[in-house]
Amino acid sequence: MSTETSSPEKSRYMGRDINLATAPNGAITNTEVLRNLAALMAPEPKAIKLVDGVHSIVGLAGFNVGVIEGDTGLIIYDTGDSMEDGHKVLDFVRTLSDKPITGLIYSHSHYAYGARAILGDAQDVPVVGHPNVNRIAAIAAGGGATFGVFDELGPLYMARAAEHLSNFVPDTGPDAALGPKFIFKGDGFVPVNKDVADGEEFEVDGVRLQAFTKYWSDEDACLTLFLPDQGVVLNNLFWPFMPNLYPLRGDAFRDPRIWRNGIKQIRDLQPQALHNVPGLPIIGADLINETLNNYMDGITFIFDQTMRGMLKGLGPDELRTFVQLPDHLREFPQLAQIYGEVPTFPPRIYYEAVGWFDRDAANIFPPSPQFEAERIVAGFGGRETVITAVKEALEQQEFAWAARLVNYLYRLDPLDEEVRALKARALREMGQRSLGSILRSFFIGQARALEGKVNIPTVAIPKAKDISQGNIDMLVDNFRVFIDPTRCAEVDLMLSLHFSDVENRNLALIVRRGVCEFVSNPSANPRQPDLSASLTRLAWAKLFTGEATARELVDSCEIKAVDNTDAVTQFLEMFDPFDPADNNTIPAIG
What we know:
seven-stranded mixed beta sheet, 21 helices
């Protein structure tokens, strides 16, 4: 058994000796990370022939592209997450063939935003995708959450995604990123004009295809494509590393059983070649079968052992160390933990199963974090004693304990420079030892924020112009969660909103003693509006994003009150305005 398996506390974050190395971009990292990246990812763009007429283009960015030759042109599987990506794809495809593009197929919504660059002025080209892709793209266009549980939290999810995707660490130097680094741009989407059902057989440019849509990985819009005549599968279910069963950014629950069953479905098709959205393709039926069996077993082990631990009465924190992959799976290349890490997965499964309560009654009503910090620091003997203990933990390479301990001091005074420096050191050391790029990004990004090198936003507010053409119903509905109940405890008013740039679109908000209700069809509502205003979608987007205050929009007549100008302004001022100065997860220095 490995050291980590037999002694979980002696982990890479708690004193186990780790060999560090320097990546080509200067990043200081765990040597194991560089070994895994070299084995699993393409270092530069190239085309790999799967079978006659089918290629994988790898190494362009954080995704791969499938190219299928049809009777008259080329069918492209995935287009990138921006117009820039789409142009890269097209340029590389043109090194293979000058045939026209006769079809697009989306593996899922993430890589559907380079399509317009690839299609150009082409008309009547089939764009094939999962039935959910257009809905997800529409939500994104309106500034909503394309992942996560609640659309109302779109700005929060996007800010967490920015941290997840290394946007607060540099490109070069010791703190440099080792994983994907981008933010969703979404500027080249072409809607699906042929959505497909699970198991549906269809044809594009003379190529016989079959779609599978029942199972999914990182969103419920995955399309696995089977070419029965060529024995090829193209998919977004098999990744070249441990499947990220819980993303730290937050997301809808990724049921391991659904992901596993999707892999099983691919295995049972017995493909001769496998194109994967991330990572390298796999060629050869026997190798594919062995690889997919091991991948399935890794997912099954994590889920089943979490269930086993729960049946033994273990709570979410205990499950982190209870679920330990056996050596043959931990050492299997395609289960390398270079994106997410296994100990972060079982707690999410636990919370999905039974919620936050770990069944210890002492945890039903815990003291506030502030109260706990005060008592812990006092019990240790005060600030200086805790500082000494943190330094001792750092010297013993007990970085996880050092970070936990120093956090009590940080909670009492987040501007204490010595405390911030100690916490930053602990987090950076953990980041350098981590295997997963997601964990590294959170550890090192927050270390840099503590040092005043970056500011990490609590929410990522989109630009008004970017969301003003989206779903106005969603934008008005989501505004209701900004209501400040202390400003309207005795208010009972209905405001009708007429959007002058959308034909016959009237919406309303009712504020009723601290609660806001969205009304999608005011004319059918039994209540008559107390106040009315006329505006454009852009004006509302400015209010939503904080680019202008209610008073500024009313004074400039971008929001035109039909009757009582002051009352309309006061109504809109009952909602929290967005203030960039308060939008830092870690308080800014100075």
